[in-house]
Design a protein that fits this description.
about 400 residues, Rossmann fold, 3 domains, five-stranded mixed beta sheet, five-stranded parallel beta sheet, globular
Length: about 400
């Protein structure tokens, strides 16, 4: 079996006509011309009229799916793409068998400033570890991280000798994909085998195994750049010993007056903006904050793309609407009158946490941040907010959850 890649719709049309492939896997969000033109050209070619098609999409309406049937579209897979779903589709359509790792395993990746958080749960699935490589590369490029700091969180996993090869694969993927120094990597685990495995191998010398998340964060903060950041960190510690450094959860620059309700994007963000524009326009977003300027900032950010944005001054108003309304994304402040952010999160937990939540707060205490993450939020951003940082964080959450 041989695969060929087309970088855009025009190149795709050319290769469909010249190569007459046995299967076409195509992105739904192609631009100028779009996916539909590729499908029409496929149907106009006698050699490809019966060629099956798999469509990949962040979001697609049910009506649109029905419109794809006449073009011999056999599968519509949601992005981010799950490897097992793709392999299952290939096996069904092409009769190809794959040696898939069907063992349990969950891999989630998030970024806060220059720290990459990798959470591993249930087990070490080799196929998902392969995808981890591309996810890390994607986030490093998206955020322009020159020297990443990495925390691999494996606190709920117990491994044995049989898991050694997969553990080595995980560590090698993290090291090779992040291209960072071993001193910038922390493995959070309570498992004695994992600790012994890492500490006994010379190739992992310098990679630190820790049993406490706060300790891991402290170590990475101090490693950032002691010559330029030490004074700042000392000032933070004088204010409160419980502060999390701005380098983890927020931008280092404040928002100038007059910029808080303007949306500006840097050059690197524009391609992603164009790529996701159609999808963003279908989103329903809630902003739960008692600050009117935050309402205006986030409304201007997402209304620009056509998204539906509803604002709430406190948690009680939001929970009242939540009983009958659905939101794809929720921006939530923690300190509000009447019903605060943690009360909202508690209510949403009872509902099964069906919404993606990003906390926006001026509170940076470690215990507060950790408590919020344990209650199911996807990200935590420290105020004041910058439009560019909101957009980058949104892109990360979008790629991971929609």
């Amino acid at each position: 079996m041989e695969a060929t890649i087309a970088k855009n719709a025009l190149e795709g049309i050319s290769k469909v006509w010249t190569l007459a492939p046995d299967l076409i896997i195509m992105d739904y969000h192609l631009k100028n011309p779009g996916y539909l033109e590729v499908l029409k050209q496929k149907m106009a070619n006698a050699n490809t009229v019966d060629t099956p098609v798999i469509i990949m999409a962040q979001h697609i309406d049910k009506k649109r799916i029905l419109e794809l049937v006449p073009y011999n579209v056999k599968k519509v897979l949601t992005k981010p793409l799950k490897l097992d779903a793709l392999m299952s589709s290939l096996q069904e359509l092409m009769g190809i068998s794959f040696d898939l790792d069907e063992s349990p395993g969950i891999v989630e990746v998030h970024v806060n400033d220059d720290i990459i958080f990798i959470e591993i749960a249930q087990g070490l699935n080799r196929d998902k570890l392969d995808l981890l490589h591309f996810k890390i590369l994607e986030l490093v490029k998206l955020y322009g991280i020159y020297s990443p700091k990495v925390i691999v969180m494996m606190s709920d996993i117990t491994l044995s000798f049989a898991d050694g090869p997969n553990l080595q694969k995980l560590l090698d993927v993290v090291i090779n994909s992040s291209k960072t120094l071993l001193q910038n990597i922390r493995v959070l685990t309570l498992d004695s085998f994992t600790r012994k495995f890492i500490e006994e191998r010379k190739e992992y010398a310098g990679l630190e195994v820790v049993s406490n998340l706060q300790y891991a964060l402290d170590g990475l903060i101090m490693d950032i750049d002691e010559t330029t950041e030490l004074d700042t960190l000392m000032e933070l510690e004088e204010e409160t010993a419980e502060l999390i450094g701005d380098r983890i959860l927020s931008a280092t620059e404040s928002v100038p007056k007059g910029e808080s309700v303007l949306l500006r994007f840097d050059a690197e963000s524009k391609p992603d903006l164009e790529f996701f524009k159609d999808f963003i326009g279908r989103l329903r977003i809630a902003v739960v904050d008692d600050d009117f300027l935050i309402h205006e900032l986030l409304k201007n950010t997402f209304l620009h793309f056509g998204a539906t944005v509803k604002t709430y001054a406190d948690g009680s108003e939001f929970l009242t609407d939540l009983a009958t309304d659905h939101f794809d994304l929720v921006f939530l402040d923690l300190l509000m009158p009447n019903v605060g952010g943690f009360d909202v999160l508690s209510a949403m937990q009872i509902m099964g946490m069906p919404h993606v939540v990003i906390v926006i707060s001026a509170v940076s205490r470690r215990d507060t941040v950790i408590r919020a993450f344990k209650m199911g939020i996807k990200s935590y951003i420290i105020k004041p907010l910058k439009p560019d940082d909101i957009f980058k964080k949104f892109l990360e959450i979008l790629r991971s959850n929609f």
